[in-house]
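Hey, I was hoping to borrow your eyes for a little while. No rush at all, and the record is pasted right below.
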Amino acid sequence: MIPCFGDHAANERTYLAWVRTAITVMAFGFLLERFDIFLAYASRAAGQPVPRLHVHASEVLGPLLLLFGALVVLLVTIRFDRNRRLIDSPEVRSYGRTLLERLMAPLLIVMAGFLAVYVARQLLAIG
């Protein structure tokens, strides 16, 4: 029997949820990096000339999201290991939020807002 198995399993589930989030952020970065290809295809399918798209923002933000996702994986791996050691430790400690948790939601909100404005501007350029 593994001591504190329920705590270890919860720690692992949390770790895997963070890894899935990081993979999603990286996939979002890749999609944003290639968004200009979709816009060119959509304008051709609509029978319109391909407008000059302003893709510089996506060329910058896409790789930043890829790096951010990789950083999330690194940080949650460190957090997972720290929590694993704390679960096994006989010493009682308080559990506090990490910097990653404090920054993730605001950063994702900013990225979502940027994408909404960016997509709207690009679609207006096509239509």
